[in-house]
Amino acid sequence: MSGRRVRVVEAGRMPYHRALGWQRALAQARIDGRLEEDLLLLLEHPPVVTLGRTAQGAHVLRPEGVDVVEVERGGAVTFHGPGQLVGYPIFDLRGRPYRQDLHWYLRTLEDALVVALAELGIPAERRAGFTGVWTGGKRKIASIGVHVKQWVTWHGFALNVTTDLSQFERIVPCGIEGVEMTSVERERGKGKGETELWDEAVVAVMRGFERAFDVEITSQESSCWRCETC
Amino acid sequence: MATNVYMEALSPTMEEGRVAKWHKRDGDAVKAGETLAEVETDKAIMDLVARADGVLRQVAVAEGQTVPVGSVVAVIAAPGETIGAAGSAPPPAPALSGKGKGETGNVGVATAPAVATVSAVSGADPSRVKASPLARRMAKEAGVDLKLVTGSGPGGRVVRRDLQGAATVAASPPTFPVSRVPLPERPEGAYQDVPLTQIRKTIAKRLATSLGPIPHFFLTSEVDMERAAEAREALNKQLGDQGGGKVSFNDIIIKATALALSRHRACNAWFQEDHIRYWNEVHIGMAVAVEDGLITPVIRNADVKSLAEIGREAKELADKARSRRLQPSEYTGATFSVSNLGMFDIDQFTAVINPPEAGIIAVGSIVQKPVVLDGEVTARRRMRVTMSCDHRVIDGATGAAFLQTLKQMLENPLAMLL
Hints:
The structure holds two protein chains of two kinds.
Chain A: E1 5-13, H1 16-32, E2 38-44, E3 48-51, E4 67-70, E5 77-80, E6 84-90, H2 102-119, E7 124-127, E8 130-135, E9 139-149, E10 152-160, E11 180-181, H3 184-188, H4 194-213, E12 216-218
Parallel strand pairs in A: 1-2, 1-12, 3-4, 9-11
Antiparallel strand pairs in A: 2-6, 3-5, 6-10, 7-8, 8-9, 9-10
Helix pairs in contact in A: 2-4
Chain B: E1 3-6, E2 16-22, E3 29-30, E4 35-41, E5 44-49, E6 54-57, E7 66-68, E8 72-77, H1 133-142, H2 160-171, H3 198-208, E9 216-224, H4 226-242, H5 249-263, E10 269-272, E11 275-278, E12 284-286, E13 288-290, E14 293-295, E15 298-299, H6 307-322, H7 328-331, E16 336-340, E17 359-373, E18 376-390, H8 396-411
């Protein structure tokens, strides 16, 4: 164990623009040293299409009825919506166990999700040259796009848990023609309730981060269980 | 003096980098820490950040262009310094293709939030800013650079009112440290639905199978903790000399409860539909508050462990519980539980039984109270303990006898040695 801690904040469903403002403020606070610990924001967005820095307009096929937002993350076009577990690590990559290496960071994010999916009973893998997490060789289950300033990260990953996959028909996901998107629910088959699957996925992602990044996940400030007054 | 802006490596093996986007244009005022441009690799974007205040000049690389790591992509001229004429360099050619992506100078980029009273100063001497002491302190607290604040006081002096807007803006993003389900502002709408987390759901399920179906009854006793406190002080002094960890009141309560249970097996039991399992082993569950719920890690065979062992284990389990690292084997199998809200200044409360256990004690805070002792009123440290009993297993007198033993042990810690 590296002993480095990451605080998980489960923020529920949050509009994209609000989460974005929040991420930027948190990242700047981390850069300035006002925020002293690394965070992993876990949340879900109402339907939205986002364009990363390599996105092309032609990759948005059906923008009707959904917000289209251009953002500063790496990567192309993607869709976020209910049932998709979105994770935004606000990590300061300076110092162990992290590295000042964005390729390392991307690969480790992928590893974390591969571990999480294994916990959920889904064999998943990386594909060289195609950032993201894949299963069954060519079905994409999680997308990744990150941004870093002075080695502090924001943006992150989107793991389809029970996402309505037909929404991806609005776009050319990741700018790759013919890519098939999938979800935890589709890979595992129905059976579990949506909320149960979601909670399982949240726990699995925390485990994945612990293993891949060699950090300790906390979700609580230390309290006074053993304070001297009692 | 001019400062070069270099193409930076996004990873140690990277040899060249592609400029995805310029945030600043030739001639723009920039300050240290501001994002000048974005560099791209794979699916990551990194900000190239200004290392000095000044004016951006000689932007040498267009958007979409790839250059070797270490090459100069622009220069930051000190204010007033002349390095080429403003606007003489051609504007960088937009490289992103596709509809609506031509000129991207003002498309949703990550610039710092604009502050009404803050504006970039160009040409002025930045080294000396006239400001009132209060304004200086406010600026420091709000993280505002005074050089960028237009003063409205005499002679351009920065005064409090110039910073009030800035301070509000600086303070309005989320406060730190973040707490449970923090939101950056008051959410829209009258209410917010937050899905149940796994732990909340488990608590709901388990406790609903308790207070409803289980016929609870409650017994309360006030315990004199004066001697336990003295014993603890002496013990901690000794442990401190040996460099060991301290013993808390909670450790003493766990130990005493376990010992009392070993003498009252009728209270150390599980109700199991068609039978009652009376346990010979004593495993104490201790309720630990964690974010968004509680969990009861188990101190096994607490009746035969030393106080120091219990203290060590309790601390370790509580830490693990808070970081959600408890293994199932560490929070299942308790035969009786202890819940302590003394640290929250709760005098007395009733706890809900954790089935299939048949009892739990709820421990309040230790408070100094006037009590009559040997015909005289004196101040003593007192603590209220309330036991919740499952009447299917424990009858009133059975529970009372256990509680009496527990009280005796806490009031006379030497009794624990008997």
